[in-house]
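Form P-L/3: holo structure prediction, ligand SN-glycerol-3-phosphate.
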Amino acid sequence: MLRLALAFLLALPAAAADFPTLGGAAPVVIGHRGAPGYLPEHTLAGYELAIAMGADFIEPDLAITADGELVAMHDDTLERTTDAEIMFPGRAGGYAVSGFTAEEIARLTVRPTGAASTTRPGFAPRSDRPLAVPTFAEVLTLLSAYEQETGLRIGVYPEAKAPTSEAQLRAIVAALKAAGRGGAGGRALIQSFDLDALRALGPIQAEAGTAIPLVALGAAGRRGDAFVLEQRGGAVSLEEIALFASGVGVSVSRGALSAEFVAAAHSLGLAVHGYTLRPTSQVESDRITAPLIAMGLDGFFSDYPDLTRASVDAWAAR
Ligand code: G3P
Ligand code: CA
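OUTPUT (holo model):
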């Protein structure tokens, strides 16, 4: 499965080979929540900017609404990133995504957090809902339009956010299949911290006739000679992960990420993607990214996809 996924990754416009990745191609740049170093996270404007900045994938975290619609949202509640408290003051039952309908969520606007602003000089999003909370269907439509217009291929890397549910997982698979991204070729990858959710995707995908590669999230760890994925519930061996996933997504700031961990993952056919790069300058990006590339990482979730793109390209040209 992973080798098929790499066929897509290898087809990306990477610079010269020689990367110590699983397939020798350049590590992929993943627009983490879009480009939230610049524009509000999980918005169509943010995803568009990430693509314009050279991201190979965009990463929507996905939650499910009261009426079963997938929406791009990191938190399980709406207050941190949207104007939900203004639009629905004193909402009975609170502000859980799962307590709102898709129509209600469509009325919200996403606010910038951290260093982000509502606009980016020189960038005009094509979407007429650039700062709304997008549905996953809208995200996939945006990607299709972009691909048709440019001839480029952009991957999508949804995360099944907690609380995961069978309805959520089935909806993710159905949406990707409907968008022509249900194959093993790597145009879509599904990630989750919830390993039971990833395991459950096996029969769901078999029923749907899809073969979307799966990525297990956690932190790199080691128990004696064994390399493991650390999770809140404990450690899981990479051998166990390889039974149902094609890769691991590991923190670059927590855990015991090392060249040995990456080599162990690669020996099992597992790609290793690191989260989350938040460099504040190109110099810092290069300083952070170069040793991770040398370790063999296969991709990077980045809040600043332009800086990470340039760091990867600079490594190729060194
Ligand atoms: O999915 C990788 C990374 O995005 C996990 O962190 O909390 O930003 O979803 P989070
Ligand atoms: Ca995520």
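COMMENT: The domain at 2-316 is CATH 3.20.20.190 (TIM Barrel).
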